[in-house]
């Protein structure tokens, strides 16, 4: 195999797996912080008199990061299967921190929007690349579990963002975005030192040497006769899911505030939402390993839709916290499992492109979500309409998931990595 050295499933291999998965978790904490920070900052942005922002402008600024994420996911789909997972992931963290710095120092809404676009470009590459990493490092038969644990980092990051909003409320929105500069100082050196390249990717790339059409043919494969129907279903489900996810993350604090809760409790609802994300990432992934990803994704979207509909009834505060947590368990974790499902449904050399493409197309829903929520609030519909407005696409996503095909049969999964030019892996049967 040339530069590939095959090792057994000893302590060194398991340690490589654990380190890689832990670093992917840390990277997704960064993404989780970004997903929530803008929604947490919305009430503060509305109070910046010099900027004179209304709901429509807030919605457009919220979509700026999603446009960046769309292009970031496309970048991931183009380069993660060619250059490797590691350089793409590290570059995404660097770009994210630079965009956060621009947002923190922005003198005008236009510059702030530009910063959000750059932030989105950085975070857009993180999730699909991390999903490919986890799919290639997770032990056989436990892929959903490890995917859930790692993706739980998004919930942790979201919770940190909500805590920052509560702690820094008196300092204004700039301090919250300045916190987002820390990853380039703290996390990037750790990634450069300890993050290995995917052994499975390197094996597949070596096998594809002299056959450049293999990585170059990822997009045609996604739309080929054998894969086109599943690809379109994955794209549709991700579109609806991200519309709900980013729309609700952007508008939940203001929506709860309009429903009668004070600003402090509205931010605490973001904590409840992300508590649901963390708890659900562990629970739903275990259920997916036991009962199958498709069933759990379907149930998650149905639960999220029901929770939004019940929130429209203006429940007591404790019940409201519980329902918001269910939204986190349902809507957010459903997308995590969709990512895992997509990653497991395509061959190794096309996996990064497949996940990146699904998230790239799906980001169109993410772009629409903040604008859609802003329209619901700006038109002064009843507050309940905002909740029902997100319940409907969640229910439609469940319908699409019911049509998902099964995951193709397995091949060989190489679970380990490379550092310093050497590949460490184990061969074991696992889902493709």
Automatic annotation (TrEMBL):
The keyword Transmembrane applies. Residues 20-409 form the Major facilitator superfamily (MFS) profile domain. InterPro entries: MFS, MFS_dom, MFS_trans_sf, Sugar_transporter_CS. It comes from the Bacteria. Keywords: Membrane, Transmembrane, Transmembrane helix. Coiled coil: none annotated. PROSITE patterns: MFS (PS50850), SUGAR_TRANSPORT_1 (PS00216), SUGAR_TRANSPORT_2 (PS00217). Its main location: membrane. The chain crosses the membrane at residues 21-46, 58-80, 87-111, 117-137, 149-169, 175-195, 232-254, 266-284, 296-314, 320-342, 354-375, 381-404. It is found in: Cell membrane. It is a multi-pass membrane protein. Gene3D superfamilies: MFS general substrate transporter like domains. This is MFS transporter. It comes from Plantactinospora solaniradicis.
């Amino acid at each position: 195999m040339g530069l590939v050295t095959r090792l057994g499933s000893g302590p060194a291999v398991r340690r490589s797996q654990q380190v890689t998965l832990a670093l992917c978790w840390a990277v997704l904490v960064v993404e989780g912080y970004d997903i929530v920070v803008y929604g947490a900052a919305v009430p503060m942005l509305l109070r910046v008199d010099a900027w004179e922002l209304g709901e429509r402008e807030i919605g457009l600024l919220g979509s700026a990061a999603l446009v960046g994420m769309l292009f970031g996911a496309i970048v991931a789909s183009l380069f993660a299967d060619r250059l490797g997972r590691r350089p793409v992931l590290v570059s995404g963290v660097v770009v994210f921190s630079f965009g956060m710095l621009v947002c923190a120092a922005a003198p005008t809404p236009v510059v702030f929007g530009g910063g959000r676009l750059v932030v989105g470009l950085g975070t857009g590459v993180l999730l699909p690349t991390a999903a490919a990493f986890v799919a290639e490092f997770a032990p056989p038969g436990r892929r959903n579990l490890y995917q859930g644990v790692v993706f739980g980092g998004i919930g942790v990051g979201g919770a940190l963002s909500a805590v920052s909003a509560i702690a820094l409320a008196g300092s204004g929105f700039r301090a919250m975005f300045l916190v987002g500069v820390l990853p380039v100082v703290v996390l990037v050196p750790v990634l450069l030192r300890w993050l290995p390249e995917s052994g499975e990717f390197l094996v597949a790339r070596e096998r594809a040497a002299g056959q450049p059409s293999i990585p170059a043919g990822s997009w045609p494969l996604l739309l080929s006769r054998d894969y086109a129907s599943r690809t379109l279903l994955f794209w549709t489900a991700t579109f609806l899911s991200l519309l709900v996810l980013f729309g609700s993350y952007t508008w939940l604090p203001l929506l709860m505030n309009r429903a009668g809760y004070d600003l402090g409790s509205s931010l605490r609802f973001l904590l409840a939402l992300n508590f649901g994300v963390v708890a659900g990432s562990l629970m739903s992934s275990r259920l997916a390993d036991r009962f199958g990803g498709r069933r759990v994704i379907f149930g998650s979207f149905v639960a999220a839709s029901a929770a939004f509909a019940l929130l429209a009834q203006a429940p007591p505060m404790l019940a409201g916290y519980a329902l918001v947590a269910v939204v986190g368990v349902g809507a957010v974790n459903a997308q995590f499992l969709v990512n895992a499902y997509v990653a497991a449904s395509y061959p190794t050399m096309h996996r990064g492109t497949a996940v990146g493409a699904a998230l790239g197309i799906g980001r169109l829903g993410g772009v629409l979500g903040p604008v859609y929520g802003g329209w619901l609030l700006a038109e002064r519909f009843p507050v309940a309409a905002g909740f029902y407005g997100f319940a409907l696409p969640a229910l439609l996503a469940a319908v699409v998931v019911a049509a998902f095909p099964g995951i193709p049969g397995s091949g060989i999964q190489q679970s380990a990595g490379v550092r310093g030019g050497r590949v460490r892996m184990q061969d074991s049967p696992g889902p493709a």
